[in-house]
Design a protein that fits this description.
Length: about 325
């Protein structure tokens, strides 16, 4: 039994190290190497940068990871996941995110099993199942949080960016020159997205298509409004500076109204969070502080349709909540 415990602990430690190395090396992914591979038409797996270490080199060069990359990128799921990673500004391939996702599903229950030597309740099979569910939702929660945070930052900077473009147009600059001014003066994520537009136009892509690509990457209603107005102005003409000023004013008013609504409903939303999570938090505290307190909930008999009556009651309570 002791040997088995040590083996499980060793596997858990190795899994945690691999996950940490994968996350730490994501910011140093060989972007230039990927571009060179695409330009030369090679399909070999990219070499990792020297600072990534031997473990990440092994991961990057493994045939299994290369095959997983090809399979995932050919599926609609992989394309959607790649779009989500781009919106969150994560320098990860879909297969790399799936690798982290799988490590999270396995790693959280393993961590709970290790800590069960201090808190015996964490070694319960039900607790390990809940840990696996937490590990399943944790990477998606992280991805959505990054994406929403980047979108909120983009929307907050967008009115000032539109005003800057309008002023540059009034000063006699072309629209591309105004965008270059935004790239120089603005902060990420605005500067990052507009610099991609400039690069795509320099590579020969039509301006309308480059603007549409930015709208698809960011997925912002305010940006879509600006892009639609610019496309219509290019087709029918008009004073683009005045149009952009009107759009900037509309966006500012929308942001102001949303802020007022969030302020007026803050107390009610907080009350909803407290009422919703209080039973779950209390049950978790009792499960850890007094492991035997909830044992009668899982005794059979009494039972309903072959399951412990407490489990059925908990399921009905969770569904009603």
């Amino acid at each position: 039994m002791d040997t088995m415990t040590l083996a499980v602990a060793g596997v858990a430690a190795l899994a945690i190290v691999l996950i940490a190395v994968g996350i730490a090396s994501s910011g140093n992914s060989g972007i230039s190497d990927r571009l060179e591979r695409y330009a030369s038409g090679k399909t070999d797996a990219p070499k990792a940068s020297p600072g990534q270490g031997p473990i990440s080199d092994l991961i990057a060069q493994s045939a299994a990871m290369a095959n997983l990359n090809k399979v995932v990128e050919q599926r609609d799921f992989g394309a959607n996941l790649q779009r989500e990673l781009a919106r969150a500004d994560l320098k990860l391939k879909p297969s790399e995110f799936l690798f982290i996702w799988g490590g999270s599903i396995v790693g959280v229950p393993v961590l709970m099993f290790i800590f069960s030597f201090v808190f015996p309740a964490l070694g319960n099979p039900l607790a390990l199942l809940i840990g696996a569910l937490i590990g399943f939702f944790l990477p998606r929660f992280w991805l959505n949080r990054r994406k929403n945070g980047r979108l909120n930052a983009f929307n907050k900077q967008l009115p000032d960016t539109i005003t800057l473009i309008a002023h540059a147009l009034r000063a006699g600059s072309s629209f591309l020159q105004a965008i270059e001014l935004v790239v120089r003066e603005a902060r990420p994520p605005i500067s990052t997205e507009f610099s991609r537009v400039i690069r795509e136009v320099n590579l020969g892509l039509p301006f309308d298509q480059a603007l549409e690509n930015m709208v698809r990457r960011v997925r912002s209603d305010d940006l879509e409004l600006m892009a639609t107005a610019i496309s219509i102005q290019h087709q029918v003409g008009g004073n683009l500076a005045e149009i952009l000023d009107s759009i900037a004013y509309t966006i500012r008013e929308r942001v102001r109204i949303k802020g007022e609504i969030r302020t007026l409903t803050a107390q009610q939303r907080l009350s909803g969070y407290v009422v919703g999570f209080l039973p779950i938090g209390l049950a978790g505290f009792l499960f850890v502080a007094a492991p035997g307190f909830m044992d009668p909930m899982f005794d059979n008999p009494p039972g309903i349709i072959g399951l412990p009556a407490g489990v059925i009651i908990l399921a009905i309570g969770g569904f009603m909540m």
